[in-house]
Specification:
Blueprint lengths: L5 E6 L2 E6 L9 H16 L5 E6 L2 E6 L2
Parallel strand pairs: 2-3
Antiparallel strand pairs: 1-2, 3-4
Length: 65
């Protein structure tokens, strides 16, 4: 799925999601909707072992159990 406000990639069991809303990478209502959809998709996929999210060069990490 193509996203307007997020850059989402997958490398094996790791999904990385960063804000991609230049020039300031602010979180908009559209970005929140996209983020909820990405999180729903990650939660539904049992093969995902880690989710990394953030903006710019500062990722936040969540590890599924």
């Amino acid at each position: 799925m193509k996203h307007r406000y997020l850059d989402v990639t997958r490398d094996g069991h790791v999904v990385t999601c960063t804000l991609s809303n230049p020039p300031h990478h602010t979180l908009t209502a559209g970005g929140v909707r996209e983020l909820f959809q990405v999180l729903d998709d990650v939660e539904a996929d049992a093969s995902v072992r880690a989710y990394l999210g953030g903006a710019g060069k500062t990722p936040y990490e969540w590890r599924g159990e």
